[in-house]
Design a protein that fits this description.
By secondary structure, the protein is of the alpha/beta class. It has helices at about 20-30, 50-60, 95-100, 120-130, and strands spanning about 10, 15, 35-40, 45-50, 85-90, 105-110, 115-120, 140-145, 150.
Length: about 150
């Protein structure tokens, strides 16, 4: 099944521009209670994912950095310790399984690398569950019980 069916479009996704500040990222992530967010450039192309861990490593590795100073640091200056690969919009759900094991969402891009949205891990899990345990549909066919009385399943 094509992932477009499960896509949460960009307009409904919290993401950051690479020119945003560290402080803006922290405030936005705190407000939305997210541990990671996609990053795009000025042309809308996918750059990567910023995580809380990336922010913490920047704080740890920058001597004297205070919360007030974070408004001077661009996201472009923050090393991202893991690159979260995006998938093309025409990918199949099966292509997302390995990514979903490592991250809460998978970023989706078009043929030009433009960020168009995400597929959440919860949607991938629901899809897998529907394959493992498909819904059962009952008909109104007659079923006889041990006393030979007719009962109906609906």
């Amino acid at each position: 099944m094509n992932i477009a069916f499960f896509l949460l479009p960009k307009k409904d996704v919290i993401y950051l521009n690479i020119n945003s500040t560290m402080r803006q990222a922290m405030e936005r992530m705190k407000f939305h209670r997210y541990t990671s967010v996609p990053i795009i450039d000025n042309e809308g192309k996918y750059v990567g994912v910023l995580t809380e861990g990336d922010l913490l490593w920047k704080m740890k590795n920058t001597a004297g950095l205070t919360f007030m100073d974070t408004k001077k640091i661009s996201l472009a200056e923050i090393e991202r310790h893991t690159f979260h690969y995006p998938v093309p919009v025409d990918a199949q759900m099966e292509d997302l399984f390995a990514y979903a094991a490592e991250q809460n969402f998978v970023s989706v891009v078009d043929d030009n690398g433009i960020f168009i949205g995400i597929v959440r891990r919860s949607e991938i899990i629901k899809y897998c569950l529907s394959i493992i345990n498909p819904p059962r549909y009952f008909t109104s066919a007659n079923i006889k019980n041990s006393s030979s009385e007719e009962i109906f399943a609906f």
